[in-house]
Amino acid sequence: MTVSPQFSRTESWALTTLTIACFGVLANVFQGDGNPVSASLAFSGICYTSTYCMIKWLGATFIKANLKGRDMSKLKKVEIPEAMGAVAAIVYLLAIITFIPFPFYKDIVTATSGGGNRDFVIEAQHIETGRLLHKFPHNKLASYLSAILSLQVIVILGIGDDLFDIRWRHKVLIPAFGAIPVLIVYFVDFGVTQISLPTFLRPYVGGRELVDLGVLYYLYMAGFAIFCPNSINILAGINGIEVAQSLVLALLILLNDVLYLLPSAPYPHPAIDSHLFSVYLLLPFVGVSLALLKHNWFPSKVFVGDTYCYFAGMLFAVDGILGHFSKTLWLLLIPQVFNFIYSAPQILHLVPCPRHRLPHFNVRTGLMEPSRVTFERPLRPIIQTVMKIAAAVKLLDIKTDESGNIIESSNFTIINLWLVWFGPMREDRLAMGLIALQIACGLLGLFIRHKLALLIFTSDNLQHSSII
Ligand code: UD1
Ligand code: MG
Asked: Which sequence ranges are marked TM in the entry (predicted)?
């Protein structure tokens, strides 16, 4: 079933009410001292309603422009609009650009004699209007703009991928180009390349707590920016999973941010600005993603396309890099990291990799089953041994011929593995199971970050206001 441009009466009422309420909040914020958090929440609401409507209005246009795909896991394989994540991404970008006046204020007041000359420069007093209300000085604006630039680059490249279906070996590197603006501004503006070491490693570096990674830190950040978008794009192929996992990740990062902004957290704290910054980047993302999920959840009326996967992943990467909390992000990305490592033999072509690895839809039962790859040529003995060990511990489902050669295996993705473990199930139950796993891993990750990390680091920066 494809998306329709008609709105039900309830839909119209709900969307109109929410839009008016959000504009009301914005008008209020503008007249008062300006509370960027309330403004960001209002922007998030407007993002939701506008993405929701735009997707409905543009569905037919996308199909006409050949941006369409067949849902392979349905009885009737109808074509539905593809790359709708582009709509969500563009609404998001416009929202965070329009949001700029709310968190930033003029900290340098200039007087001009005309022609754009800055004759007098007077430093304005930094105004703190309260714990959550304070605004950022202009130096943060550079970081904010670099985030926007990086996201714009990735959206353009993502749309290119959705239009031209770029080959996998090329598209894996697309996010590296997207990361350039953030990395350059990080270098010019921030430049911190030190990491704090766990206690057990310190004796090897003369007892120091911090080590400077220099250029290696930039390589690490570029690697992180390549990993995030691709890891979301390969944990895909069943209705709703790309958006739902991104939404869960955004909410978990927001939960971590809130821990630093609660009245009980130490104040003032050097990490507060980074986490406030992260809140401003993520709230509108939650708005656009919720609207996209409404149309993309089982049974999907639209597909999100690679644009959304790249955009969402790049947003997390940018957020982690600029907020200097990429280590915490790795803990939230446990399912993606597992899926990436588990997929590696197919991605690196040690084992043949079909164009699509999404689970197989059984037309007789209507349930999803693990999709399989058959091997026309015998695999190398070492690979066969590893695969047999993996099958013995239920990490793969393999089939062998009379002489013991592996002739078939389930595809190497966490989605197929879930089906190997729990048996065939309906597509939406499969998605819900994987999302529950994402939530559980994320909460465990945050627990490790703030409680168990104390076992290997001398302090958790949530408790101590002096350490970033
Ligand atoms: C990645 C995966 C591929 C998986 C695909 C599904 C790797 C290396 N690549 O490829 O194995 O099959 O994502 O998104 O892991 N589709 C559905 N139902 C859905 C979502 C997508 O049938 O819920 C199909 C549609 O035909 C859609 C297509 O997948 O048009 C989109 O595939 P695309 O995003 O282009 O695949 P890749 O990202 O290249
Ligand atoms: Mg994809």
From this structure: 12-30, 42-63, 83-105, 141-160, 172-195, 215-236, 243-262, 274-293, 305-323, 430-448
Q: Are 324 and 192 in contact (CB under 8 A)?
A: yes
- For residues 330 and 337, the answer to whether their CB atoms sit within 8 Å is yes
Q: Give the model confidence (pLDDT) of 325-381 as tens digits.
A: 999 999 999 999 999 999 999 999 999 999 999 999 999 999 999 999 999 999 999
Radius of gyration for the chain, computed over Cα atoms and rounded to the nearest angstrom: 24
Distance of CA 358 to the CA centre of its chain: 20
CB 468 within 8 A of CB 270: yes
pLDDT at 204 over 90: no
Q: Is the dihedral of CA 384, 386, 391, 395 positive or negative?
A: negative
- Supply the pLDDT for residue 131: 43
Each residue's pLDDT tens digit, 10-61 = 999 999 999 999 999 999 987 776 688 999 999 999 999 999 999 999 999 9
Across-strand partners of 372?
A: 410
CA of 373 to the centre of ligand 2 (A): 19
Q: Tell me, what's the pLDDT at 209?
A: 83
**Nearest Cα residue to 412 out of 453, 352, 330, 465:** 352
Question: Rounded to an integer, what distance in angstroms lies between the CA atom of residue 140 and that of residue 144?
Answer: 6
| Distance between CA atoms of residues 70 and 150, nearest Å | 31
* 306 alpha carbon, distance to own chain's centre: 12
317 neighbors 330 (Cβ within 8 angstroms): no
In whole angstroms, give the CA distance from residue 226 to residue 143: 19
**E-state strands within 175-280:** 194-196, 210-212
Buried b (16+ CB within 10 A) or exposed e, 367-381: bbbbbbbebeeebee
If 0-12 CB within 10 Å is exposed, 13-18 middle and 19+ buried, where does residue 154 land? buried
Which pTM was predicted?
Answer: 0.93
Strand partners, 120: 111
The pairs formed by 199-202 with CB atoms below 8 angstroms and a separation of 24 or more are 199/456, 199/457, 199/458, 200/456
Nearest ligand to residue 82 Cα: 1
Residue type, 134: H
Ligand 1 atom nearest the C-alpha of 305 is 34
71 lines ligand 1 (CB under 6 A): yes
